Amino acid sequence: LSQALDGFVLVVTSEGLIFYSSHTIQDYLGFHQTDVMHQSVFELIHTEDQPEFRRNLHWALNPPHAPEGEPSPEVGKSLGSSAVIYKPDQLPPENSSFLERSFVCRFRCLLDNSSGFLALNLQGRLKFLHGQNKRSEDGSALPPQLALFAISTPLQPPSILQIRTKNMIFRTKHKLDFTPLACDAKGKIVLGYTEAELQMCGTGYQFVHAADMLYCAENHVRMMKTGESGLTVFRLLTKENRWKWVQANARLVYKNGKPEYIVVTQRPLVDEEGGEHLRKRSMHLPFTFATGEALLYQSAHPLPGFPDPSQSKGKPSKSKKPSCSHGGRSQKNGIDPSSLLGAVMRQDKAVY
């Protein structure tokens, strides 16, 4: 049922804690289900929309305000959302139309590069959340409280292409130099590799199309400076020696204030989408990464074996063909195997 929805299920307690989210939240916001459950919902909501969400959590649309300087009981968990305990006889009956909710809020979205937020329409109702077994300070059991049970759907309906690909979003984990460390089950299906095959090959750039390498490296550097790469569209080499377009967003994960590893959320694209991104990219650059080898490698002449550009059949990717045919040259020429050029030379020319 959750896969059939055009959105995800969200259950939020009256204090603003996410009690439950369906795993499909990852398809829309990029966050894993376990990243958000039992966290404050207000950490995901745009600052300007937080009062509206807080208002809709209250049965009378009129949440009490904690006096200034006095934190509410749950302030640590819910960013100041008040945690007032009501007795059932103080509340309207659960089937009351007064408890129905429909409103719009902007949520943080790792998959969106334009603003970093996705506008969601939340439709549902306040219902009693049973089985919490919470106790008051004197030890007596507290009655169940109202929580928001809602289906969250994007305001802008997804395109057919997005619907076709949304179920194959996958995540990979990398060292800071991008060496692959782990890949989830969906990633193994999309790419065809086992984790061991991904780990044994080097920095990970050898899985990236030669025409996309500098573009990826530029966003890699941006991520090391800012913590997030922004949306990056490029081609990955699958086990079957085919190129798969993906839209990726990489984030640094910190431990004790220091960057420890990189997590990348990736969504497969169809070739038409990838080609459209490539056209936009080449418009922004002084030359296309696909055909500027002489400039890239500061060489007056292309590397031995590069074909004459006039012979390539219109596909920019073909012009890189021979750079992969010198697998043994990288050491002889003093090229660092972990460099971008070293990664290109380790690739099999057949994949181009």
TrEMBL record:
Protein name: AHR protein
The organism of origin for this protein: Grantiella picta
Entry-linked CDD domains: PAS
Annotated compartments: Nucleus
Molecular function in Gene Ontology: nuclear receptor activity; transcription cis-regulatory region binding
InterPro entries: AHR/AHRR, PAC, PAS, PAS-like_dom_sf, PAS_fold, PAS_fold_3
Residue span, PAS domain: 1-64
Keywords: Activator, DNA-binding, Nucleus, Transcription, Transcription regulation
PROSITE patterns the UniProt entry points to: PAS (PS50112)
Gene designation per UniProt: Ahr_0
Region (Disordered): 301-352
Pfam families in the record: PAS (PF00989), PAS_3 (PF08447)
Main location: nucleus
GO CC terms: aryl hydrocarbon receptor complex; nucleus
GO biological process: xenobiotic metabolic process
